Amino acid sequence: MAVNAAQSGEAPTSRLAGRWVPWLVLGLWVVLAVVMVPLSGKLSSVTTDSAAVTLPAGAESTKVAVLEDSLPGGEDNTFVFVYHRAGGMTDADRATVERHYDTLAKRYPPKVVAPAGEGDEGPPTRPSTDGKAMMFTLDVSTTYGAPEAIVGPLRDAAKDRPAGLELDVTGPAAIDGDMESVFDGIDLQVLLITVIVVALLLIITYRSPVLWFIPLVAVGAAALTAMATVYLLVKGFGIVVNDQNSALLTILVFGVGTDYALLLIARYRETLHHHENVRVAMVHALRSAAPAIVASAATVVAGLLCLLFADLNSTSGLGPIGAAGVLCALVAMLTLFPAMLVVLGRRVFWPAIPRFGTAVAEKPGLWGRLGTAFMGPTAALCSCATRQGRGRRIAVSCPDGEPCGAMPEGRRPLSCAAPPGPVSAQRCPPRQ
Q1: Which residues pair with 425 in a beta bridge?
Q2: Rounded distance between C-alpha atoms, residue 62 and residue 55, angstroms
Q3: Strand 423-427 relative to strand 393-397: parallel, antiparallel, unpaired?
Q4: Residues 308 and 290 sit within 8 Å (Cβ to Cβ)
Q5: Nearest to 126 by CA among 94, 156, 164, 172
Q6: Tens digits of per-residue pLDDT, 227-238?
């Protein structure tokens, strides 16, 4: 297939194709990174999972949570130790439970002594009615640390027990500690998993040892910028960010950023066959792909901003958080990413480097083959391109001989080449 290639040594057709433009863009992003990277690390300091903050302000549960925080007390974390043996507790088991309670009560004594008569609630250890379980409750002052810092040592202290005696450490404080442990470092885990998945997809798509790394760097820069932007939004407008929203931000930026990169690279690869100057080729690629990318980003941002009307603060906060992520990905993939591609030149596509002036091989894919199969001789309609016009009418027939109807002469199918006349019957040429 012939390629309509621009002449060798063509001059840039736009100021955007100037030699200094990609380097200027890279320099601006370096300056932006110096400002934004420190701010992105502060996002975790403003995330919260407090019910009083994430729930709607007017909800009764929110009011209760606020009152609970303001009431005196609450200086203790409550842990519940539940021991169980399927065949029934033995004397050694009961002695172990008593020993564990005494050891832990001495290790974590109460910081405030209860008034006389208020702390007498019966024996600390309580057996079940069927004799298969025992339990005790341990109140640990918050001065000893947060629940996630205490629950581990408590479980370790109760490991010394007879074989077959099972133990579960639960209660409000243990649940809070386990939840914090689950979400601890989730941002880093999500980031690493996302990077690995995206990298594998890019490697499979481009089959290049270099090209997959370029969009990954650009999307990573967009993710850091988005995190810094969200931190500024929290400080400036007080939006609510929890751990889940923070993790979703990373996934969203990498997802949309990779999508935009795929669109732009496809157009850029095509224009490199037509233009020898890589900067000119990138300008044409941007003119072709940028409108679709911007329109896609605009629809996603508009949809995310609809979440602002949600009653749940954590959900309404997800709207501007996601919108900021999409916009940062859009800016990065239309500025930083093209600049990196232009600076690296054609060699970034190695080993399948698009050569200037060479034919572009068109290999029908799965969808092309399916379309060809459906457009076979069994098609009932004659699909031909038409011209707008006025005049006499012609009758058109499909390959099987059935007439498709009449139309003005000016709108006759181009492939039928009907001669002018009052009325003429023409047949479309049979499909090859």
Answers
A1: 395
A2: 6
A3: parallel
A4: no
A5: 94
A6: 999 999 988 888
